Structure formats: C-alpha cells, structure tokens
Amino acid sequence: MAEVLVYVDHVDGAVRKPTLELLTLARRIGEPVALALGNNAADTAAALAEHGAVRVLTNEAAELADYLVVPKVDALQAAYEAVSPAAVLVPSSAEGKEIAARLALRVRGGLITDAVDLEADGEAVVATQSAFAASYTTKSRITTGTPVITVKPNSAAVEAAPAAGTVQGLEVSFSAQATGTRVIARTPRESTGRPELTEAAIVVSGGRGVNGADNFHLIESLADALGAAVGASRAAVDAGWYPHSNQVGQTGKSVSPQLYIASGISGAIQHRAGMQTSKTIVAINKDAEAPIFELVDYGVVGDLFDVVPALTEEVNTRKG
C-alpha cells in the first residue's frame, strides 16, 4: 500500500486533534507516515502510532522554532523526497495552507485546500470540498504530480488504529531563505479554558442581536455549559463587542463543528460562508424571516435573552 505523508500539528509534543483526523483520513488512501517538527517532536510518537502512523519522522532543529514558515517547508520537502508519498496531507490552518502551497510549487504537485473528505479511487485520491459558501459540494482529483491537500478541522471522526509508529530522525538541509525572517518575540495567548475555535466540536456564536459587549456573558455561559468555543459575527466584532480572533465568517475564521448555535445572527452570506459546513446548525432569532433559518436544522423563533439562559439552565440541569 502506498504511503501518505501527514504533517503533524502539535504543541511541545502534544498532538492537536486535526492531525489525528488527518491520520484517520490517510488510512483510507494508504499507510500514514507522520512528520513532526520542532520542540519535543519525538514526544508525539505514541499518540501518532496509536492513530495509525506506521512511521514518525522527526526533526527538532532550532531553525524550526526561530524562523517563520520556510524551514518547515524545507523539512516537509525533505520528508517528501524520503518517502515519495502518494499524497501529502496538511491541517487547513492559515500556516498549514501556506506550507502546503509552497510545497506543491516546489514539487510540481497539485494543490487542493479546505477538503472535508478524502477517498481512494484506484490509485487516485478524490477530495470533497464545499464551494460557494457551501452552496455546492465538489469532488476533485489532482491530474499532475503528487496531491498536496489541506483538510478542514472536524472533517472526520478520530479513530484509533494502533500501528508501529517507528521513530526516525529526518535529515534536513535548510535553504538560504530559511533564515530570512526571524521570530524575535512571542506573546502567549490568554487562555480562556475553552477549545480552539477552528477545532471545537461545538461552537456557540453571538451576533448583532446580543446588543452589546456586556451581554456576551450569555453566549459564554452557554458555551461553557456545552464545553464549546465562542464565536461572533462580523457585526459584533466590528462593534467592538468581542475580539476579532473569534469572528466566524468569510473575513474571519471558518468552522465546521458537529454543532453550531447561532444566537442573534441574521445569517448574511458573509457569516454563512464560515459555518455552513457545520454538521448540525441551530439558530435563535426573534425575526422569523431572518436568512439564517434557511439553512438550519433546528430554529427557535424567540428572544435570545429568554431562550439562551433557559437553554443554559437546561444543559446544566441535565449534566447534573
């Protein structure tokens, strides 16, 4: 069976969920070979092996931490040349898409971004994407070169499949461009204790109907009861009610959770483009004619100031 190269997203050896999803998808089209880079990369081996990686390639060179994207592209290219994979899979984050695009250019491979599913068709890899704000679903395959594919978080359920997970060091010759842009400082993001927005299985978002920053505690309380991330519409962000980093939409972040709850959001196309691939969508809005109701699985016509607290109380009661 052909090998599939999977780029690992981890934090000091702790593998992030989108990578485990990639390993699940990779097993559909071949044998996963994982590439872990940076600090404590070798510590990822156990989790990667548990989820199907037959080999784990690692490199912890200082360049990977001290400089921007190019060193990671150099390392991924070195892994590509060592493995000769049938496909390369990368998490569909902002950095992941840049890494994938640069690699595809270097190896003369085809690039598909934001895939939501993968399947094998003979020796070809077929990627499913949502197009035009998720109004259409497309299936694509690369016709020239090796497919380089980025996959959206929450596109597949994580499935354990223990494999050998043999750890091998990867030799990397960094290019002259690798040290062109140096990271001179880092500021840790303040932790809220909530899941990362783009990776969360549940997202609760608030919009114009929340009517002020002081009222976003209603959205946060429901999110905390559900173990969810908090999102916001562009209107709420532009009004200064919630940080831009939490914006869901075409000019914000794209999410694809199992459950998306939109509270006080009208459902303009800009917002829909960022959440329309969610598995189950619930909307709470007092305007029965709001566009958001056109795409929901469940809609509640009511005042969010009544509905959201009642829902939060019910969730907490059922949790015991």
Automatic annotation (TrEMBL):
InterPro entries: DHS-like_NAD/FAD-binding_dom, ETF_a/b_N, ETF_a/FixB, ETF_asu_C, ETF_asu_C_CS, Rossmann-like_a/b/a_fold. The keyword Ion transport does not apply. Residues 4-187 form the Electron transfer flavoprotein alpha/beta-subunit N-terminal domain. The electron transfer flavoprotein serves as a specific electron acceptor for other dehydrogenases. It transfers the electrons to the main respiratory chain via ETF-ubiquinone oxidoreductase (ETF dehydrogenase). The lineage of its organism: Bacteria, Bacillati, Actinomycetota, Actinomycetes, Kitasatosporales. It comes from Streptomyces longisporoflavus. Pfam families: ETF, ETF_alpha. It comes from the Bacteria. Its cofactor is FAD. Heterodimer of an alpha and a beta subunit. Belongs to the ETF alpha-subunit/FixB family. Keywords: Electron transport, FAD, Flavoprotein, Transport. This is Electron transfer flavoprotein subunit alpha/FixB family protein.
